């Protein structure tokens, strides 16, 4: 037990009644002041209102100073929430845009494929003829060879000599056949030779490729005068192609040689139709024959 000094103990005991009395007096005074304010408010309301107005005017700057940081913090919080919300919305919009772009690309590809397949159907084959539709997977166009690789081979019934066509007309013929793919020699290739006829005049010629965009007409009659735009079709001679297949149109003569603009855009072919006309001359491969001729000893 702690024993306080005599002087400290007496002062402590004396202070206790005074503290209690002070608290009670304070409560009584506050109650009396409140009662007085109520009575005065009833008797002189204008005086109380003026006093309250002055009190509010005095405390308003303090309240404004206290409220400003709180409002600034609330505004900053709202801005941060808005920024985060906009960032999330931006990410969602980016994802939606990417998905829409993928769908748009797929739609454009499908439209292009559908258009090419519809164009391919424009070419009407004779009843009973076998044909195979194939997709072009490679274009081996270069300074020495103009050919295409297509996704059809022996297992699909492809054989050498089959005519390669689009919806516009003849573009070449099959010269190599594998199990799963085949090579098509284009009419613009240097090794391509096709007997043709000029529609209207009936003049016959040989359409020879020279690795340019326009093969040339050779062995025309000496008095032949061709009009630019005249249609060129296969003549059926040589047993390579049947007569009447569209090939191209005559272009302006250069140095006495007429060119032919192919009916199909040979640089933009994605699908071809391989038609078997069952002609014996179609199995002749000019490229292979040239290689064999070069290998023979002179």
For the structure shown, list the relevant keywords:
alpha+beta, 298 residues, single chain, rod-shaped, six-stranded antiparallel β-barrel
Structure description:
The chain is of the alpha+beta class and 298 residues long. Helices cover 42% and strands 21% of the residues. It has three helices and twelve strands, in the order ααββββββββββββα. It has a six-stranded antiparallel β-barrel with strand order 1-2-5-4-3-12. It has a six-stranded antiparallel β-barrel with strand order 6-7-8-11-10-9. A hairpin with a 5-residue loop joins strand 6 and strand 7. The model has no long low-confidence stretch (mean pLDDT 77).
Blueprint of the fold:
Blueprint: H1 6-43, H2 45-120, E1 130-139, E2 147-150, E3 163-165, E4 170-177, E5 182-186, E6 193-198, E7 204-208, E8 216-218, E9 231-234, E10 246-250, E11 258-262, E12 271-276, H3 286-295
Antiparallel strand pairs: 1-2, 1-12, 2-5, 3-4, 3-12, 4-5, 6-7, 6-9, 7-8, 8-11, 9-10, 10-11
The side-by-side strand order for the widest beta sheet comes to 1-2-5-4-3-12
Portion of residues in beta strands equals 15-25%
Cα separation of the termini: 137 Å
Number of helices: 3
Structural class by sheet pairing and helices: alpha+beta
Number-wise, the strands total 12
How are helices and strands ordered from N to C? HHEEEEEEEEEEEEH
| Mean pLDDT across residues | 77
Helical amount: 40-55%
- Taking pLDDT < 50 over at least 5 consecutive residues as the criterion, the unreliable ranges are none
Q: How would you sum up the global shape?
A: rod-shaped
Report the sheet with the most strands, covering strand number, pairing sense and barrel closure.
6 strands, antiparallel, barrel
What is the gyration radius calculated from CA atoms?
A: 50 Å
């Amino acid at each position: 037990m702690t024993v306080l000094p005599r002087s400290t103990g007496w002062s402590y005991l004396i202070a206790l009644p005074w503290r209690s009395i002070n608290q009670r007096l304070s409560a009584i005074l506050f109650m009396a002041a409140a009662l007085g304010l109520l009575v005065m408010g009833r008797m002189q309301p204008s005086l109380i209102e003026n006093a309250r107005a002055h009190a509010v005017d005095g405390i308003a700057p303090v309240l404004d100073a206290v409220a400003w940081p709180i409002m600034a913090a609330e505004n900053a919080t709202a801005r941060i929430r808005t920024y985060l919300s906009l960032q999330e919305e931006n990410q969602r919009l980016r994802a939606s845009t990417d998905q829409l772009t993928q769908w748009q690309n797929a739609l454009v590809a499908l439209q292009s494929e559908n258009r090419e397949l519809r164009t391919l159907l424009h070419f009407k084959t004779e009843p009973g003829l076998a044909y195979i539709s194939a997709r072009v997977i490679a274009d081996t166009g270069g300074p020495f060879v103009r050919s295409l690789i297509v996704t059809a081979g022996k297992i699909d019934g492809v054989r050498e000599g089959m005519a390669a066509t689009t919806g516009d007309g003849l573009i070449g013929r099959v010269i190599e056949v594998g199990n799963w793919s085949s090579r098509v020699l284009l009419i613009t290739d240097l090794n391509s030779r096709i007997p043709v006829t000029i529609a209207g005049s009936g003049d016959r010629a040989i359409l020879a490729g020279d690795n340019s965009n326009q093969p040339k007409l050779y062995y025309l009659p000496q008095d032949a005068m061709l009009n630019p735009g005249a249609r060129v079709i296969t003549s059926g001679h040589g047993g390579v192609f049947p007569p009447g297949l569209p090939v191209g149109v005559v272009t302006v003569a250069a140095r006495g040689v007429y060119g032919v603009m192919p009916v199909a855009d040979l640089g933009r072919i994605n699908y071809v139709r391989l038609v078997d006309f069952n002609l014996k001359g179609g199995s002749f491969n000019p490229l292979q024959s040239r290689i064999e001729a070069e290998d023979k000893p002179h």
